Amino acid sequence: MRTRSFRSVVKNYKAVFFDAFGVLKNHKGLIPDIANTFQYLDKKGIPYYVLTNDSSRSPEALSKWYQERGLGCITTDKILSSGMLAMEFFKTKVTNGNAVAFLGTNDSAHYIETAGLKTVSIRNLDLNDIDHIESCAFLDDEGFDWNEDINKTINLLRKKNMTVVVANTDINYPVNKNDISVAVGGLADMVEKILGKKFIRFGKPDAQMFLLAYERAMKDIPDIKRGEILMVGDTLYTDIIGGNKFGLDTALVLSGNTLPEMARIKIGSTGIIPTYVCESAVIEL
Amino acid sequence: MRTRSFRSVVKNYKAVFFDAFGVLKNHKGLIPDIANTFQYLDKKGIPYYVLTNDSSRSPEALSKWYQERGLGCITTDKILSSGMLAMEFFKTKVTNGNAVAFLGTNDSAHYIETAGLKTVSIRNLDLNDIDHIESCAFLDDEGFDWNEDINKTINLLRKKNMTVVVANTDINYPVNKNDISVAVGGLADMVEKILGKKFIRFGKPDAQMFLLAYERAMKDIPDIKRGEILMVGDTLYTDIIGGNKFGLDTALVLSGNTLPEMARIKIGSTGIIPTYVCESAVIEL
Amino acid sequence: MRTRSFRSVVKNYKAVFFDAFGVLKNHKGLIPDIANTFQYLDKKGIPYYVLTNDSSRSPEALSKWYQERGLGCITTDKILSSGMLAMEFFKTKVTNGNAVAFLGTNDSAHYIETAGLKTVSIRNLDLNDIDHIESCAFLDDEGFDWNEDINKTINLLRKKNMTVVVANTDINYPVNKNDISVAVGGLADMVEKILGKKFIRFGKPDAQMFLLAYERAMKDIPDIKRGEILMVGDTLYTDIIGGNKFGLDTALVLSGNTLPEMARIKIGSTGIIPTYVCESAVIEL
Amino acid sequence: MRTRSFRSVVKNYKAVFFDAFGVLKNHKGLIPDIANTFQYLDKKGIPYYVLTNDSSRSPEALSKWYQERGLGCITTDKILSSGMLAMEFFKTKVTNGNAVAFLGTNDSAHYIETAGLKTVSIRNLDLNDIDHIESCAFLDDEGFDWNEDINKTINLLRKKNMTVVVANTDINYPVNKNDISVAVGGLADMVEKILGKKFIRFGKPDAQMFLLAYERAMKDIPDIKRGEILMVGDTLYTDIIGGNKFGLDTALVLSGNTLPEMARIKIGSTGIIPTYVCESAVIEL
Question: What are the protein's UniProt keywords (chains A, B, C, D) (predicted)?
Fold first, then answer.
């Protein structure tokens, strides 16, 4: 697979959208020397944004993670998460006074609460007192007992018909060099199949994630066209097909999900074709 | 199932999005008295738009159909089709000079050509001369020999890796009171499964259709919020879930796909919950 | 939905296959008066067998459950379970000295061990010592920590390529009048999707379950034909389609999964057509 | 991928099951020198059988094809096809006097008629005269107009609820070195999805195909055990997983569907593990 240097690619764009995991960070922390890339982009005056399917934390908490590791430039306003879309959904769709039942940590729900909404952890929910529960959210794969609380979620949804939101469409995520863990999107797929219901999913490759970022970019460069933006990601099925469909140019990086030796085979067998392939998003200064 | 009169519902919104088939028209022609609805909306100053997964004709041709039947108010600028999204995609993604191979009538391709793109019907394609073919489109279920040309499409995509666009996600459509026909989205699903590839689909319930219409509405009412728009449709899996997810309020009408006696069961079993249920979109004047 | 009395149906057959849950028993225990049915069949000299997708216990333990409730006629040799097929599979496919890693209770594994095979609970497995693990089995939804051990299973299967057996294809089961629980088949579906692998599944509607029972019936009535056997079940997707396909006649009973008010709609919408529909398998004496 | 010579593998078994396409023949005709293999097996006294998902012709017609090419040993009784299972099904399930509507050539239906059943080609069916149609069969991808007759099939199944049989589960088949064609199983998948119904499928990997062959083998070697039979095939998803599950040993050959350079990757990614991998089923004499 012939690859291009990231610098030679990115210099031709007016703005850049980055996926987080596998591009900017991995299980060990920041990708080494990724700071160079932001130094370069800042110098060139090319704005950048991080698009993540992470609904376990607020943009503030996500931003703080980068800042603590020396990437002060990844401020809250640079972060666009699927959790933000879920929060917007609940703000418009949940009646005042009613509550959202959720699977996840209290941290993951805290963000929804900042919008003035009530939340109840499925763990603490009394299935005999659900009149005020208007919607249900899959936020994070932690913060509950899988056995007991997934079954409880199923029975809640059998007792009362309500809209269910999956705020992270990923079905798994890496926990270290070799191991992965089921993500909340995988649990949601299982529950959806058992119930025969249709949930609402937010996150890449869905257009709403790209729209959210595009609207943010237009605040910085009002007349920017979609074709002037580069989406950088490590996953064909989310970052690349979603970016292509939204009209962005796309760069697949081989520092995460898609292993260098498999990139050509995967592109050929899926028909998901990035505009460019780069070893990583790191720029040698 | 308790239903609401469409008038009592629609009067509270600043703009209306209508699905076409099963809402404004059916296999016999216009839904009787649907003209009343547009007379009412014009009088109230509520703008309206038609969102259709029809990629077999241009907005001009779609608009003409209504005008010939006395609905002069459905002008070209009121029509938003999945074919428009496909055309936009090809405009940004196909290299100048290259061509799009398509399944469909010449009419369906004509619209793409108006954007300056070259097209070649799969029927006329020589599989030994495909260097200039850069993309492939499923546009319409007519205009080709199903047996020969679907197999030809499969072998084109095995010979050369390219992006495939499905410009109509519907898997079937009604042809008369009792009968349905496979739509091009159904053929695309079969081909995708056989090839193991991933196609790009445009059309409801995808957010891009709703975004296209929302951008159009903002030209008429610059500060309109999503929650001030009503999406009216007959299909839970496209119109209603798509509208809900995009943040619109939704009205399911029982004049098409979803039969009155099944509406309650379907809403309960799918968990796709419209804001309102109405017998039809017709307003008694 | 016009139903037939079970007596008028069953008297015309030479043997009967019963599903267990929803037919002979439910969450409260035995279906009231089901003993009558076996008294009738014994009197008529019609042999019967119980076909169950239950892999959590041995035929001995399953039989004991009936015997403790007064149904002495349900002896071990009357029971055919998907767990028996899994055990047969491991006996022929696992090399002497190697082990099967399993999700489930120790009880569920005990049955495999009686065949001389070694088993290791995923819970107790050391992922750094897996040379002797040759196969993996989903046996029961209890006996492990869902969060930790499902993720451990996924990482075991990433570390070493091995055949995975799902000994219970059901995706959920009822725990009381209103509530259901995820069954081990549902967990297996999720893991299979995350890994992109293909597991081997035993249990109805697969032909091997019916073959196992048919071979047992032929021991009692050597020249019995498939069409002389009645399969009685409460689930269209397992009991009825599986029985139909294997060449048996089928009776859907409305005492379990398929509610009386939905039977006609479900048969019409699925196209899975039982030979008969009966209120229950109970015979009034 | 380390491969074994087919001779060194096959000599240890008491009987052999062969897949046809990609193992014994390809688009050009017989695999060169495959006659050697049968000469060897005959000499060793190892009986063999051909298991094929081909429902377009009768066992007689399939056998004749081999005989015309010099393989006189592939007699009718050596052939087990999914079409035979479909015929058995109709014999027990279709009421005397009623008819089976079919998609396919007249040849494909001729076989069903030899069992005394009436058939009607969908092409010739009058949708206003369907009282006598009791079942529907997908037999072959030829012999009908795809556009018109697939839609006609859909509307037949909407008008009248009946059991639908898919007599060939393959979704595509090779027509020459480079090209493939949609098989009738692919068309059936599309129709099933559009209707939301559940069809009955015959053919590998389903246990009934292997059972049919096993029963045939037991006529030649009454006490043969499953583990003493070798299943030879070129496709992991049908031949190998089906053989493994039925308790046979399995040999994947690289002369067909599974390309040598991809075999290791496919086995690793699917978790479908053949007992052996051989270049082909040809034995050098």
Answer: Hydrolase
For residue C259, is pLDDT > 90? Answer: no
pLDDT in tens, A65-98: 999 999 999 999 999 999 999 999 999 999 989 9
The backbone torsions φ and ψ at residue D247, rounded to the nearest 5 degrees and listed phi first, read: 95, 10
**B164 contacts A271? CB cut-off 8 A:** yes
Q: Which domains does chain A have, with CATH numbers?
A: 6-53+205-278 (3.40.50.1000), 83-201 (3.40.50.1000)
E strand or H helix that includes residue A5: none
**pLDDT tens column, C135-188:** 999 999 999 999 999 999 999 999 999 999 999 999 999 888 889 999 999 999
CA-to-CA distance for A63 and A171, rounded, in angstroms?
23
Cβ contact (<8 Å) for A147 and C151?
no
Contact between chains at B158 and D150 (C-beta distance less than 8 A): no
- Give the integer Cα–Cα distance in Å for A229 and A46: 10
Number of Cβ within 10 Å of residue D204's Cβ equals 28
Q: What digits encode the pLDDT tens for the residues A21-42?
A: 999 999 999 999 999 999 999 9
**Mean predicted lDDT score pLDDT of chain C:** 95
Neighbouring chains to D with at least 3 Cβ pairs closer than 8 Å: B, C
For residue C123, the chain A residues in CB contact (below 8 A) are none
- What does the pLDDT look like over A209-266, one tens digit per residue? 999 999 999 999 999 999 999 999 999 999 999 999 999 999 999 998 888 888 999 9
Q: Say yes or no to pLDDT of C1 above 80.
A: no
User: How far B2 CA sits from the closest chain A CA (Å)?
Assistant: 16
The burial class, CB within 10 Å (0-12 / 13-18 / 19+), for A166 is buried
**Residue D1 has what pLDDT?**
72
Question: Which chain D positions have a beta carbon within 8 Å of C211's beta carbon?
Answer: 207, 211
Q: What is the pLDDT of residue A111?
A: 87
Cα–chain-centroid distance for residue C233? 11
Interface test with A, best of C148, C150, C152, C176 (most A CBs within 10 A): C150
How many percent of chain A have pLDDT more than 90?
Answer: 92
Put simply, the answer to whether B245 touches A195 (Cβ < 8 Å) is no
User: What parts of chain B have a pLDDT lower than 50?
Assistant: none
Neighbouring chains to C with at least 3 Cβ pairs closer than 8 Å: A, D
CA dihedral sign, ordered A269, A272, A275, A280? negative
Interface predicted TM-score (ipTM) of this complex, two decimals? 0.94
Name which of D154, D178, D182 is nearest B190 (Cβ-Cβ). Answer: D182
- Rounded CA-CA distance A6/A276 in Å is 9
C-alpha span between C268 and C76 (Å, rounded): 37
- The confidence score (pLDDT) of residue D269 equals 92
B-facing residues of A in 161-200 (CB < 8 A) are 161-164, 195-200
* Candidates B91, B200, B229, B275, partner chain A, best to mutate (most A CBs within 10 A): B200
Q: Which of residues 248-277 of C touch D (CB under 8 A)?
A: 267-273
Whether residue A162 has pLDDT greater than 80: yes
Instruction: Report how far residue D233's alpha carbon sits from residue D219's, in angstroms, rounded to the nearest whole number.
Output: 23
- Round to whole Å and give the CA distance between D11 and D41: 8
* CA atoms within a 13 Å half-sphere pointing along the CA-CB vector of A53: 26
D218 CB within 8 Å of a chain C CB: no
In the predicted structure, residue C285 carries a pLDDT above the cut 90: no
C145, C150, C172: residue with CB nearest A182: C150
pLDDT-derived band of residue A61, with 50, 70 and 90 as boundaries? very high
Best of B179, B259, B265, B270 to disrupt the D interface (most D CBs within 10 Å) is: B179
Give the closest residue to D244 by CA, choosing from D282, D270, D265.
Answer: D270
